[in-house]
Amino acid sequence: MEDFIVFSVRYLHVICGIMWIGILWYFNFVQIPSMPKIPDEQKPAISKVIAPEALFWFRWGAAGTVLFGLILAAMNGYMHEAMTFQQPDIGFGMWLGLIMAFNVWFIIWPAQKIALGIVEADADAKPAAGRRAMLFSRTNTMLSIPMLYSMISVQNPPGL
Question: What is the pTM of this model?
Answer without folding.
Answer: 0.92
